[in-house]
């Protein structure tokens, strides 16, 4: 049977990505996530290679040599040790080769507090996309990022104080922070600031009592992003989709245990944004075609444009809403306009 050339190229480039550091110039390493999203939207092998080459040329940093060994019985001692990423990746990769991906993911997430906000949700997204691509190296990298950059939001909620719905829970923490300036020049630093703010910890409600919390979170995050296309809110959309991928692979009992951690992390993200300014929005039922939107996303070199469009496409297929197509259309159009202005200069 002939192998899929896109899958072959994707695996080749994800393997090659191992030579890049967890961080990149001015950002984190989005390359593997963007490659998976591009492939999922129908990118050709040539386009995947083109994006990889661009990333290596403009953003990538070389991974430092791994000069320590972390055993599978000691990995949890590296919690929060950013320098241990490479050693943790090798540890998890070896473990996955022996035990399989899902047992390793489950063992790791049972051992340490679930911290989906880690690396501004990118560790979670990288792990989920690794699962989707069935790529052991990227699964190991996602787990290593979650552990080495571990960012727990240590808020506790009273189960008797339950949010009526997702939007009410988000609104509660936003109002608690009020119009205070959340200090920090990055999503991660602002998340840390909110996590340590007593007003946030006191305001967090228990998630709404529903069997469809992930679906409710997906609807709420895309609705919020459509109203206010804030950069942090964008990450809550892609992170919720990533959580769906991850939790679907885990035993039901473990997935249920992890959902409150996702809820708290998303509440913290909205608290950092406070009340973003709403924008003028076209009617979400405007005539637009997914083929055109995906075509523009495939031509983009902006990893966030690529991932948001892919997320919207996947969530639309699962639970259709006009806001997915409208939000994706808006971001690819803005990206195209930015490219045209750059060319005009």
Main attributes of the structure:
3 strands; 3-stranded antiparallel sheet; mainly alpha; about 350 residues
List the helices and strands and how they pair.
Layout lengths: L4 H12 L3 E5 L2 E2 L2 H10 L4 H14 L1 E3 L22 H15 L1 H11 L10 H12 L2 H13 L17 H12 L9 H9 L2 H6 L9 H15 L3 H18 L3 H22 L16 H10 L3 H16 L3 H23 L1
Antiparallel strand pairs: 1-2, 1-3
What does this structure look like?
The structure is a single chain. With 345 residues, the protein is mainly α. It has three domains: 5-148, no CATH class; 166-273, no CATH class; 290-344, no CATH class. Helix content is 63%, strand content 3%. It has helices spanning 5-16, 31-40, 45-58, 85-99, 101-111, 122-133, 136-148, 166-177, 187-195, 198-203, 213-227, 231-248, 252-273, 290-299, 303-318, 322-344; strands at 20-24, 27-28, 60-62. Strands 2-1-3 form a three-stranded antiparallel sheet. Helix 8 (166-177) packs across helix 13 (252-273) and helix 15 (303-318) packs antiparallel against helix 16 (322-344). The model has no long low-confidence stretch (mean pLDDT 94).
